[in-house]
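By way of example, we now present a protein record of this kind:
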Amino acid sequence: MSILGTRVQRVEDPRLLTVGGTYVDDLREPALQGALHVLFVRSPLANATITEVDVDEAKSAPGVHGVFTADDVDLPPYPSGGSLSGPTPAGMDRPHLAKGVVRYVGEPVVAVVAETLGQAQDAAEMVSIDYDPLDAVIDLDEALADEKLVFPEAGTNVIGTAGELDDSLFADCEVVVSKQILNQRVAAASLEGRSAACAWEGEKVTFWLSNQNAQSCRDELMANLGLPQEKLRVITPDVGGGFGAKIGSEQEAALLSLVSKQVGKPVKWVETRSENLVAMTHGRAQRHVVTIGGRRDGTVQAYRLEIVQDVGAYPRMGAFLPVFTQMMASGVYDIPKVESRAQTVVTNTTPIGAYRGAGRPEATAAIERAIDLFAAEIGADPADVRRANLVKPEQFPYQTPGGMLYDSGEYIKGLDSVLDAADYASLREEQAKRRADGATKQLGIGLASYVEITAPNNTEGETGHVEIRPDGSALVLTGSSAHGQGHWTTFAMLVSEQLGIDLDKIEVVHGDTDLIPKGVGTMGSRSLQLGGTAVHRAAVDVKDKARKLAAEMIESDEADIELTDGKWQVRGAPNVTVSWAELAQKAEDGLAADVHFVEDRPTFPFGSHLAVVEVDVETGKVDYLRHITVDDAGVIVNPILTEGQRHGGIAQGAAQALLEEVSYDSDGNPQNASFADYAIITAAELPSFELLTMETPTTLNPLGAKGIGEAGTIGATPAVQNAVVDALSHLGVRHIDMPTTPERVWQSINQA
């Protein structure tokens, strides 16, 4: 019986649940003995000229080994993330420490280095910085108007534009509906914030980083520090969550190398939660105008998506997020005419980066709200409108108007499975009864069908190494990088399936650039289909080498040799066997294989979500009652891990729909600098999710697997938002922007 597809418990968990994880702040490496603490003094203003920085008193404070300002930094700035339409305007690169001007609350200005964190905090209080406030650019319309500029030397806040609009797009449509909607800014809020440690040993520097891709971080640091690869090592210990916000390195981490060399000691930096909420990259932050047109029989003929992306104060990955949104604009629907246009603008706010789904949830939220708006306009059931326009199974591989080639899908089957499991007809009957009775608590039923792109950076591929040790155990090296997903369990299962070695004899190692110099990391739901396939193929290669060697040792024909219960033998003659340990000891050059797997093109997982809510029409309070989903990610290797990813994704997606929002006042002051005022969702607000299973394999990798890590986030958000709007549609409410807080819902009821 195959181990693949079975409910194998995570092999990572016993250590995490007993001894606990080892995060950057827990490291006790010999090279980090006596490490000093680095604390950053950050800007309290969104836009201001720095007129004076006085650090003399701080330098003489007890325990202080150094205080650094921009004048002490001789490193080049961190490069910007580019733009939609070419290079970023000059001057928008990130400085390690602000010089002359600050551009968002939380930008680092001074670095204090002390023996203890308390001493660093005391010394930071002694740093005196004089600011001359400037007008902040916060609102998107302000940014587009270019009357106030984040970078005056650039002459504009608009750093990129992509896409053209056709005035005749909706000429043949009987019905056209248009609406401006907001996909609000949210915080990644990983349990472990950003953290880094750094130590020099001779001319070589080692970084310990809480990140999602050690090799990419190494390459960024090499470029910034001007070091060759052999002089720089990046190690990733346990990582307490990333969600996209820990892709790549940070300018604060790079600065640690200079600080460590100057003070002659190892150093570490671990940000506080308040720092994390104002300084770590935020996600989403798109404003959309959706326009949808079609016939009154429910056929959608044309769709337009106009995007304004807030990238924050410095262009980072946020500058590219609209690319994914435009690529996936048409979603799961066979719409003949689709167009999009995107603009990216800088503002005096925290920079925007990737956040679970990174551009794809934004596309789904837009098209799924548009479908509901269209259904409401023609008086049709939103389920019927979806079914009528979904791409059909026989159309795959399906070429979208946006240029994507969807590999495989059963969109109608997924939708109908969710409707049947929820007993959709009964829900609508209950809804009609409550409306007729004028109930205080109205029922809302929200649907969302989605498709997403996984492993969008497929051409970079991923590396895998499998090696049999002399004791018969196996070592797996992977360029993929776990931060909670269960890579050890999954990759060990793939090796055990091929080699018959018990899971407890398989060690999986990642996140060390000296051991694994080539790799890409974990983002974009790429780990299993790329990293897992690389490990799988390496195991197959080891098996092929072992068969040949076993045949020589047993003195039999290679075609007659088989692997049974982890031992090699002649088929039908189990009296003579060769173990993995014997093979490894016999192999002159070792028994190992390296694979770099590149997928021909990305895969496209899909699914449907149905959310049920109650809305109190007197108070605006929303109660989240049920959530039923199909999330089809191809062949499932471990259902436990798949369900875990779905649970986490649905919770985060629902949180955006109901609660979460990073906001600023008109001067650029963050309104959510702690968990006291940033509404993270908890188990108390969540129902038990009802997870249905569907597996539509892909042919693009031998596992038949697609990504699952971001699926729940993509489907849940519009399903829950649609449910809230649906509960109030009989009152004339057509749209409520996220988050659908009681205040916002109550205002919508009264306006309607």
The first helix runs from residue 13 to 17. The two ends are 60 Å apart (CA to CA).
